[in-house]
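Forum: Protein Structure Q&A
Topic: Joint prediction for protein chains with partners

I've read a bunch of threads here and the consensus seems to be that you should model interacting components together rather than docking separate models afterwards. I'd like to see that in practice. Below is the full input, 652 residues plus whatever partners are listed. Could one of the regulars post the assembled result?
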Amino acid sequence: MPLLEVKDLKTYFATGDGVVKAVDGVSFSIEKGQTLGIVGESGSGKSVTCLTIMGLNPKRRTTSTGEALFNGEDLLKASPSRLREIRGNDIAMIFQDPMTSLNPVHTVGTQLVEAVLLHRDISRGKAKARALELLKQVGIPRAERRIDDYPHQFSGGMRQRVMIAMALINDPDLLIADEPTTALDVTTQAQILALIEKLQSDYDSAVIMITHDLGVIAEIADDVVVMYAAEVVEKSPVDRIFKNPHHPYTWGLMGSLPRLDADLERLTQIPGQPPSLLRPPPGCRFHPRCAYVMDVCRTKAPRLEPVRNEPNHLQACHLDEETKDREAARLLHMFATGAA
Amino acid sequence: MIGFVLFYLIPADPAKFACGRACTEVQVQKVAHYLGTDRPLYVQYGRFLGRLFPIGFSGGFHFKAPDLGHSFVNRQPVTSIVGAAAPVTASLVFGGMILWMMIALPIGILSALRPRSLLDRFSMTGVLIGISAHPVWLGLIASYLIGYRLGWTPIAGYANFFHPLYAQPGGPVQWAYHLILPWITFAILFAAVYVRMIRANVLETMNEDYVRTARAKGAPEARVMRAHILRNALLPVVTMLGMDVGLALGGAVFTETVYSLNGLGYQTIQSLNNYDSPTVLGILVFATTAIIVLNLVVDLLYAWIDPRIRLT
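Posted by a regular:
Agreed with the consensus. Here's the joint model:
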């Protein structure tokens, strides 16, 4: 049984302009100790998917359907108090912006201790010892003294380390990291990723890594889910997707990835903007921006189907396989060499 | 200083007023000399400052209590007039403050939790009425209905907390009993302003990332509200409270007048009517000092509750 299995998850927000379908039929699963990368542009529904799993969406004007089975228990049907038990204990989350994710009026120690005491019936002193242990593990120098400092006395990278410490303090089975490196500078990004990877193996947690950066995915993910406009467009093991990507949107994402080994004049970009989730385009949602658009794409939505001979590689595109194999090989060669 | 000049510009002679209607020109001049109003403005101002300064120079260097001079009207020292009136105003203001925060906090938080709900709309309407109503009108209505028709409370007047005067009510119970209506009247206006402010601040803080973090940790809603939202949402409220209380200490003119409370505001009105500039200036000095001191207290308090501005 997978640790977390999400089936046909839909999250709709009712707004003044109509219903925003922020997540529209997303399915994926993750095994114990594995890393799943969810990649896509801003507004593709990555974060909302995870907030829905955690039950952290605003309750008013939001409807969520489908299933999110965590160890066989459906989180969407769990009571608020049961969800509270799970949050921070079995499933923990790291957020995008470490600058605003810590409460400015409490010391980091207090906030770490709070996380422990909410789930463990132990003394404050023991909880503080645990907090200190975690701060040392995430590499905060002079942790004994820094534990009584306030968030504003830490740099962005250090705050994200504190957030990671807070997420891992109760040894969760699943860690959801929502763009944990986006707000940090490049050298810090690498450190934080390395830290998450190391702690993941130490604690044997599964990780869902949300990002718009395929570089991050290549670094740490086992499986990849590519999302576009609230839907999954491609899903596969990580080496497959980098060797033989099957969806034109994934090609676009790869073309916009800067590479140090290629001498490119400029990065390829995907033309246009992600569609409005209020009124998504009919047929394939990517068709207005797709270079390979056919007539069928405008009317019929493609289904997420396995690639021939590759049951683990799913994709949703009307193009025939020969064209896709050929185009993927051509584009990858082009991105790698810089030949246009 | 401005107060001083303003009084100088009033085309009325306090000496004439203090002397009485039947005074001759010579007598008025004598009175003017006695009061010091025949001297040029800068001499009067210099004397005023000299009295106020806590270090004396005549007869050797020594410390002395700041002196505000004497009233033109009854020759009482202004310091003791202010000293008698200040506790009345302070009782009214601090009691009122506690009451208005007791009203504003729960309503503000509840309507922030359920924006656009029936409770929210209802309380926002109440707030609008509270802000629009004039304290004199409110005071008169309250004292008529509750004090006169129902007879639950005294209509007006004040009872000392300590040392009641001969044959007058006093002690904590009578003190509070006499102040109930003034407190309510005084609190309604401010409660209205504070409900709005608390509601807005709580609503804003609820969308902060660290509140989501707290929920992601598995904190129950009550704890999220108390430890994470309120601590942050009430920071600006503390500032406002300090400024408002400081300002109100200078005299809650309307409320004091309606309930015949002999506080600073009431005293100011009386003195103004009598061209009694030393008393008015004395109250002005006292009120200014109160505002400055309270702002200092708030700043110190702020450093304690908000670690970001603490000196490190």
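The mean pLDDT of chain B is 75.
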